[in-house]
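Shipment paperwork, digital attachment
Item: protein structure file
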Amino acid sequence: MNLLKMKIKGRVIEGKKEGKRLGFPTANIALSQNIESGVYAAKVVVEGIEYCAAVFIDEGGNTLETHILEFDHDIYGKEIEVTLGKKIRDVVLYENDKQMKKQIKQDIAQIRLNANN
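Attachment content:
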């Protein structure tokens, strides 16, 4: 797994709300730098408090989608700082929402496990 430790700051923008529809809302930031697509473990600072997160960067690489663990607040328009850690996996296309939700749950479990070690 790649270990990046790359920091990205940005204002949270509205996305397509696909994550929210699946039960995993995301804080989205527009990317100005080229980062390899995939799912990453991350730390996120929101209003001075650090949280663990799962980050998805799509194949186009123009949006960073962050699911902040143990967090349920409206932060549209607020600035957050995301520090990318280990790359968990590459982007995978799924046949249905059920498969995607199962994989997201596995990703989050792995991120939680790594955060506690």
